[in-house]
């Protein structure tokens, strides 16, 4: 039809071109594996990404082929994000916290042609390399001076800086089909083999627009963004792309994710916005509390990947004046699904009600659609009480897994998230459990997340995990596992009494067990299945 708009494909490389042209002076600061701080500008980043694109062509990487990375958050990783996807091949980010068997499985399954790695991960690469048929080439993300002299790799080992230096910065980003693949990330798969989620240029760009909006991650050219969430985990929640789109300064923490290092970086670089999982923020808060420190520039922190306990929201907001933005997402959702941003009428709610609202995972941004359904698949009301399986659909939701022979996951065009949730009349969704973690007591469901949230309100609790333990009368009953604050004299009955009046009586856990630590998975989440293996028979043997 005549008079229509241009058909310009949505491409990852266009983010880089925009950033170079309009924000060329903006900085990218990285703490390097070598220990020092590296800083340069978007202009330099774009130039080096073009050199790398030429280098990839020189290595014979064809469009659509996968290029693996095993790396921390840093500028070289950022260059690969754009060089690989921009030139038409697929950036495959590998999670170094996975078991070596899983890594080998993923590299083989994705048929990675080459793997780039940070020096920290040389021992891991040495263990994985003999177990995989491809790749034959590995690239150490360092300069000549830091190249490992002795290594156990029989494959070719190249030096990142050598190959960047050895190539021209003249490169025309190809005009790709926007529906072609740009990056690949495997879910960590607490059960079964990891599954690959293949993002397209189009889904990535649409996700970038949506995630940058004020009621989403709220990013602008005036922000200094510190992605603590790893670039190997769902593209650092899209922040590398968002930063280019809006022209924000980027600060990368490298391998130093402890509270002290993060606080130093936040203060030195005047970070305004950060993002990560609750476990990381626990470390940061503990450090800043211990030194009675403060934050001079931070305005917001995005917390997701696991429920953000109200105690954490309170600590950030009331103690340090930093707004908490609670978000929910999944690898299959690129990852942003819902964000807890107030609607106009909620801003003036009493503070207690606002905190209660912030414990919810929030509402979808435009482009994401959600519903909850019962066991028969019938839609449930948004009354804040009914809980059911959460389904989503949207521009950046996967429709199937990469190279999988399993039946496609969609149900009537909706993606079943595996989460159980309730939705209130304002459309705010609250995760009550993963479907496999729901506690089924006497035929009724009990939310482990609600129980954990209350436990976190107790001042002597560091970590709270509630699991379903088998029960002779009720099938399952909640069992609460607690890591206490150091030196705490808390006893189980004291904590159980703490629940009185805060929760329906029959939801109250029957017992509390104190543990030294809880097992964490590759993305920093509690491995409840392991705890169930260990404590699942607690009430049978009691
Ligand atoms: P994996 O845990 O397999 O590495 P993801 O990072 O994709 O994969 O995890 C997605 C899951 O994490 C969600 O389905 C949900 O159970 C959980 N999750 C993510 N964000 C939140 C949140 N804010 N609150 C509660 N659960 C969350």
Automatic annotation (TrEMBL):
Ranges for domain AMP-dependent synthetase/ligase: 18-402
Record keywords, A-Z: Fatty acid metabolism, Ligase, Lipid metabolism
Pfam families, A to Z: AMP-binding, AMP-binding_C
Record carries keyword Ligase: yes
EC number(s) stated in the UniProt entry for this protein: 6.2.1.44
MF term (GO), any: ligase activity
UniProt similarity note: Belongs to the ATP-dependent AMP-binding enzyme family.
Protein name: 3-methylmercaptopropionyl-CoA ligase
Biological classification of the source: Bacteria, Pseudomonadati, Pseudomonadota, Betaproteobacteria, Burkholderiales
Gene that encodes it: dmdB_1
């Amino acid at each position: 039809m005549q008079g229509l708009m241009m058909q310009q494909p949505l491409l990852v490389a266009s983010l880089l071109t925009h950033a170079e042209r309009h924000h060329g002076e903006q900085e990218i600061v990285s703490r390097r594996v070598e220990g020092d701080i590296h800083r340069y500008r978007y202009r330099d980043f774009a130039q080096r990404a073009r050199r790398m694109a030429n280098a990839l062509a020189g290595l014979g990487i064809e469009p659509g082929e996968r290029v693996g990375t095993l790396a921390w958050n840093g500028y070289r990783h950022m260059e690969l994000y754009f060089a690989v996807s921009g030139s038409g091949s697929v950036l495959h980010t590998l999670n170094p916290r996975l078991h070596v068997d899983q890594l080998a499985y993923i590299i083989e399954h994705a048929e990675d042609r080459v793997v780039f790695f940070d020096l920290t991960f040389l021992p891991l690469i040495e263990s994985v390399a003999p177990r995989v048929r491809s790749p034959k080439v590995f690239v150490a993300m360092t300069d000549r001076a830091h190249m490992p002299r002795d290594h156990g790799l029989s494959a070719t080992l190249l030096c990142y800086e050598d190959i960047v230096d050895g190539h021209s910065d003249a490169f025309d980003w190809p005009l790709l089909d926007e529906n072609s693949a740009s990056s690949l990330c495997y879910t960590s798969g607490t059960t079964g083999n990891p599954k690959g989620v293949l993002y397209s240029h189009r889904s990535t760009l649409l996700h970038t627009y949506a995630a940058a909006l004020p009621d989403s991650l709220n990013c602008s050219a005036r922000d200094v963004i510190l992605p603590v969430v790893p670039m190997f985990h769902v593209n650092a929640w899209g922040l590398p792309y968002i930063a280019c789109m809006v022209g924000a300064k980027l600060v990368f923490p490298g391998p130093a994710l402890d509270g002290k290092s993060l606080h130093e970086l936040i203060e030195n670089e005047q970070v305004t916005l950060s993002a990560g999982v609750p476990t990381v923020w626990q470390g940061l808060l503990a450090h800043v509390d211990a030194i009675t420190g403060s934050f001079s520039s931070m305005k917001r922190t995005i917390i997701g990947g696991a429920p953000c306990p109200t105690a954490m929201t309170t600590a950030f907001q009331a103690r340090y004046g930093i707004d908490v933005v609670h978000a929910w997402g999944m690898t299959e959702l690129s990852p942003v699904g819902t964000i807890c941003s107030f609607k106009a009428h909620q801003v003036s709610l009493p503070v207690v009600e606002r905190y209660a609202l912030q414990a919810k995972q929030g509402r979808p941004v435009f482009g994401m659609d959600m519903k909850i359904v019962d066991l028969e698949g019938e839609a449930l009301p948004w009354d804040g009480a009914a809980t059911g399986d959460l389904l989503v659909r949207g521009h950046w939701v996967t429709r199937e897994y990469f190279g999988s022979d399993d039946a496609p996951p969609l149900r009537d065009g909706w993606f079943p998230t595996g989460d159980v949730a309730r939705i209130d009349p304002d459309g705010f969704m609250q995760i009550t459990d993963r479907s496999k973690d729901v506690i089924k007591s006497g035929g009724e469901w009990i939310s482990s997340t609600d129980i954990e949230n209350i436990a976190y309100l107790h001042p002597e609790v560091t970590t709270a995990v509630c699991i379903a333990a088998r029960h002779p009368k009720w099938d399952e009953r909640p069992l609460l596992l607690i890591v206490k604050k150091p030196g705490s004299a808390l006893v189980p009955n004291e904590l159980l009494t703490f629940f009185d009046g805060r929760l329906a009586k029959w939801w109250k856990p029957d017992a509390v067990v104190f543990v030294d630590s809880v097992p964490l998975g590759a993305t920093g989440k509690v491995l409840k299945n392991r705890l169930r293996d260990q404590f699942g028979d607690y009430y049978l043997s009691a």
